[in-house]
Amino acid sequence: TKFVSSLMGGPASFTDTHIANAHKDMPIYDAHFDRLKELIQETLDEFSVEQADTDIVLGAFEARRELLVIR
User: Fold this and answer.
1) Mind giving me the DSSP string for 4-59?
2) What is the pLDDT of residues 41-53, one digit of tens each?
3) Which one of 19, 35, 40, 68 has the lowest number of neighbouring Cβ atoms within 10 Å?
């Protein structure tokens, strides 16, 4: 996605406000978010992305959990 591309230095950029607004009407819970992270891990592993880079991507997603998950 463009978000992952932006994390890896691509041309797209997203603010936390943009991310929160884009997902505000979606019922996202911890289980959904955790599954997303699993899928990202599996996909990056499949494409032999170095673990250090994978950790950066997953860390950036985790840093935004509170913007997306319903409490």
Assistant:
1) HHHHTT-S----HHHHHHHHTTS---HHHHHHHHHHHHHHHHHTT--HHHHHHHHH
2) 999 999 999 999 9
3) 35
